[in-house]
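PROTEIN DESIGN WORKSHEET
SECTION A - STRUCTURE
LENGTH: 464
TOKENS:
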């Protein structure tokens, strides 16, 4: 009898296991097969590492040791969990809901290795809330990379593509914006049109500059992508960012289905609605003004069934728009053609425009959520966008503060950079519009309106 109890327990456990398998596992597998393309796309983005890892958990947990004071001392006294939270805030990362010690923007393998995902630049928060496809306007990529490199050297670990790449080119000189366009150019330099790796010397004549990632929910409306609208849409073009030497042509081909699903997810994204009060009378005056002064370029907005909704995909010449032109000038016709004629665009079949005239007037859906504004992220609120002469020369945002009056980032404005010594990490917290590629000038169409009209227009912009 003594032995029968454990035996029964074993039998019971075995029975339970079989039951579990029968009841849960098979339906689970069935469920996995039944995911829609877009659900699979989101799963790919959040769980599959398409790039080699940038650092491991030990490195991430040691990063605080290179922070400036008094942050370092605060981190030293903190628990491991709150230190991780401090690190996420410093680098502009968001905790995963189910596993707050990991960041949403990285795919963390069971062995603790962190690989950057598309969400690094393309998933952020506004007013502390996460909406799918909202750009990450807090990402401190350059600071994270520099500090990871210091820890790797101390822990005697080998340097990866980001650690080495960032010695050759800047990754992002202002938090929330990155030199992503030039990464693309630099990486394409080492590939032929079929993505075979070709050895070439590094090019030092690239015009480095930082760009603010656009909201992904615009993807469906755009007929071509990027600030100058030169590149054709398609699942292949979405894979450009994976051009590290570890990924050869066969690997790209093998991942095509994954990116078909990712594109399906992008195509389904919708902008989030404004969450606070709206003065509806004023907003309807604003709607009228928008139709007369803005809609020719930006299109019309309204209920989904509204047949008047249109989006013209209009490119405005660089002289007419008058915003910072470094991004426009930084891509040569050859650089554009290299992409358009490559595997990424089906060797030219997908089309594109190697000589666009300026910048596209982007869709404005969910514009309340996507501050800062303009392609370089130089204008912190919609109020500032509508008041050209009052745009701040230098500004610094709070990590997740939201300005409901001016619609956009909660900021402090400065005339000069602070006089005391700043660490590189601290300096990147300031947006200095005097620097190359960072001008906040231009887009003066709203100056035809008086102050009351601008107020009504601002109210309307909350609702689209
Ligand atoms: C390091 C930051 C960064 C990462 C990582 C990144 N992107 Fe981007 N992405 C950008 C920036 C910046 C732009 C704007 C470029 C421009 O307009 O010239 C952009 C533009 C885009 C656009 C065009 C949107 C539009 O409306 O024009 C798409 C689509 C896109 N990225 C998809 C992806 C995908 C998919 C991945 C992952 C494979 C990815 N990105 C990884 C920074 C990034
Ligand atoms: C002649 C065409 C044109 C007109 C008219 C125009 N815009 Fe624009 N707008 C653009 C272009 C082009 C850009 C992109 C400029 C850049 O990023 O450098 C832009 C950018 C913007 C942005 C920033 C978008 C973002 O995601 O950062 C907002 C907001 C905006 N416009 C609002 C308006 C409003 C409101 C009006 C009406 C008063 C207006 N625009 C009239 C062409 C136009």
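SECTION B - SEQUENCE
RESIDUE ASSIGNMENT:
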């Amino acid at each position: 009898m003594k032995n029968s109890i454990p035996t029964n327990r074993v039998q019971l456990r075995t029975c339970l296991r079989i039951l579990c398998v029968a009841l849960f596992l098979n339906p689970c597998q069935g469920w996995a097969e039944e995911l829609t393309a877009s659900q699979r796309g989101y799963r790919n983005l959040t769980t599959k590492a398409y790039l080699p890892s940038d650092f491991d958990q030990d490195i991430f947990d040691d990063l605080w040791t290179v922070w400036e004071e008094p942050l370092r001392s605060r981190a030293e006294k903190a628990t491991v969990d709150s230190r991780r939270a401090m690190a996420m805030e410093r680098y502009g990362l968001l905790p995963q809901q189910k596993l707050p010690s990991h960041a949403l923007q990285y795919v963390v393998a069971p062995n603790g290795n962190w690989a950057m995902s598309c969400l690094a630049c393309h998933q952020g928060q506004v007013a502390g809330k996460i909406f799918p496809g909202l750009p990450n306007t807090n990402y401190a990529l350059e600071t994270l990379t520099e500090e990871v490199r210091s820890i790797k050297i101390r822990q005697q670990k080998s340097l990866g593509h980001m650690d080495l790449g960032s010695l050759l080119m800047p990754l992002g000189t202002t938090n929330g914006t990155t030199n992503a366009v030039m990464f693309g150019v630099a990486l394409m330099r080492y590939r032929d049109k079929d993505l075979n790796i070709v050895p070439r010397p590094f090019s030092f004549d690239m015009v480095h500059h930082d760009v603010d990632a656009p909201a992904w929910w615009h993807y469906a409306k755009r007929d071509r992508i990027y600030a100058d609208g030169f590149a054709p849409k398609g699942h292949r073009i979405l894979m450009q960012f994976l051009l590290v030497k570890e990924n050869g042509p066969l690997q790209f081909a093998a991942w095509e289905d994954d990116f078909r699903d990712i594109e399906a997810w992008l195509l389904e994204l919708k902008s989030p609605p404004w969450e606070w009060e709206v003065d509806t009378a004023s907003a309807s005056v604003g709607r009228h003004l928008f139709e007369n002064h803005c809609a020719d370029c930006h299109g019309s907005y309204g209920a989904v069934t509204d047949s008047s909704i249109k989006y013209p995909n209009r490119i405005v010449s660089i002289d007419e728009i008058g915003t910072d032109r470094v991004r426009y000038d930084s891509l040569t016709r050859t650089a554009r053609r290299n992409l358009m004629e490559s595997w990424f665009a089906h060797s030219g079949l997908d089309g594109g425009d190697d000589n666009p005239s300026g910048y596209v007037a982007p869709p404005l859906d969910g514009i309340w959520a996507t501050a800062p504004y303009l392609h370089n992220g130089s204008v912190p609120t919609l109020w500032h966008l509508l008041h050209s002469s009052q745009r701040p020369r230098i500004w610094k945002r709070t990590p997740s503060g939201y300005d409901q009056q001016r619609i956009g980032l909660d900021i402090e404005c400065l005339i000069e950079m602070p006089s005391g010594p700043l660490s590189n990490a601290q300096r990147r917290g300031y947006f200095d519009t005097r620097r190359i590629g960072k001008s906040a000038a231009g887009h003066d169409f709203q100056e035809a309106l008086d102050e009351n009209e601008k107020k009504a227009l601002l109210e309307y912009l909350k609702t689209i």
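SECTION C - NOTES
Confidence is low (pLDDT under 50) at residues 1-7, 18-31.
Residues 118, 120-122, 178, 180-181, 211, 213-214, 218-219, 222, 225-227, 238, 241-242, 262, 375 surround heme C (ligand 1) (CB under 6 Å).
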